[in-house]
Amino acid sequence: MDIIFLHDFKAKTLIGVYPWERIVPQTIQLDLEIALPSSRACQTDDIHDALDYALIVDRINNILTNKHFSLLEALAEHIAQTILSEFHAPWVKVSVAKLGIIRGVKKLGVRIERGQRRG
Ligand SMILES: Nc1nc2c(c(=O)[nH]1)N=C([C@H](O)[C@@H](O)CO)CN2
To answer: What global pTM score does this model have?
Structure first.
């Protein structure tokens, strides 16, 4: 299985369960692993055969700007389902973390894995 990874992708968004978190944007860190539907690009060296990671970054930035979630879990699920449905990836692993939100904890978050449903 060939994979595109995006590590240490930091961006600001409104997220959280508390009222102040609906007003003050927070920096989150995303780490993604995205399985590729095909390895054709390895042979052809053609971007048209590749899953363009720049488009994935653009799409995630769009989500972070336009959608606001209470829970990291819900954001991770939305990103995972977007990548599966819009980029036809067979499988994706999404980690979403907040940085320094709780005293004594440098980074905390959730990690989910999702695949295409059969049938
Ligand atoms: N499982 C989760 N627990 C909590 C979340 C979350 O997203 N998932 N979020 C919060 C608050 O928004 C937090 O960021 C502030 O302490 C608390 N617990």
So the answer is: 0.96
